[in-house]
Amino acid sequence: MNVRLRPITSDDFSTIVRWSEDREFCLAIDWSVDLSRAQVEEWWTRILSDPGDDFLRLGVERGGQLVGYVDLAQQDRQVGRAEFGIAIGERRLWAQGLGIEAGQLMLHHGFHHLGLTRVTAQVHRPNVRSLALMRRLGFREEGLLRRHALYQGGVCDVVIFGLLQNEFDADRCK
Ligand SMILES: CC(C)(COP(=O)(O)OP(=O)(O)OC[C@H]1O[C@@H](n2cnc3c(N)ncnc32)[C@H](O)[C@@H]1OP(=O)(O)O)[C@@H](O)C(=O)NCCC(=O)NCCS
């Protein structure tokens, strides 16, 4: 196990500001490029201080360093559903399996500690890394929103993914 999940604090802001200065990362995750340090810190302060009952964001730590984060957003406890999100902010660490590990940890947390039975994800179709990651995590394609969103300067389709708890558990037992 290379990564662990933990809360994000203001001590992590300098790391997150560094990610926000990486143009390729910003374009991939759809963050505004060229935000000032103050704007990034203000935005993250708001998310951390008032996340809302239905939103969980945890940091992804590797070797004592924050390298990304994972989300379970729009949690609906009655239905047992939430929306998954992920970013590995340290781009030099992409394609080394961290996304898969962090994603599996967060999905396990959602299914086995938060009482979720279904997790969804939405991915801009040109974001091939993220599409590959969702499939690798066991998500199934459930639909396509055609010409639905702005991404990297153009209008694109958005792929809808879904994963049920029993599918996640069965996958882990293989
Ligand atoms: C998407 C993201 C989280 C993936 O993280 P990662 O640590 O690089 O992912 P992993 O190394 O665990 O690889 C996951 C899968 O991605 C695929 N992948 C890796 N590099 C790839 C590339 N250059 N092109 C296409 N697919 C690639 C691999 O197929 C891998 O599956 P495999 O092990 O079966 O080969 C990361 O690229 C990222 O943070 N991107 C910006 C933010 C973002 O797009 N978030 C998702 C929004 S929906």
Automatic annotation (TrEMBL):
Q: Which Gene3D superfamilies match?
A: 3.40.630.30
**What keywords sit in the KW lines?**
Ribonucleoprotein, Ribosomal protein, Transferase
Which residue intervals define the domain N-acetyltransferase in the entry? 3-166
PROSITE patterns cross-referenced by the UniProt entry? GNAT
According to the UniProt entry, its GO molecular function terms are: acyltransferase activity, transferring groups other than amino-acyl groups
Give the InterPro entries listed for this entry.
Acyl_CoA_acyltransferase (IPR016181), GNAT_dom (IPR000182)
Q: One cellular component GO annotation, for this chain's record? A: ribosome
Q: What is this protein called?
A: Acetyltransferase, ribosomal protein N-acetylase
Q: Which organism is it from?
A: Deinococcus peraridilitoris (strain DSM 19664 / LMG 22246 / CIP 109416 / KR-200)
Q: Which Pfam families match?
A: Acetyltransf_3
Extract the PANTHER family matched here: GNAT-FAMILY ACETYLTRANSFERASE (PTHR43415:SF3), SPERMIDINE N(1)-ACETYLTRANSFERASE (PTHR43415)
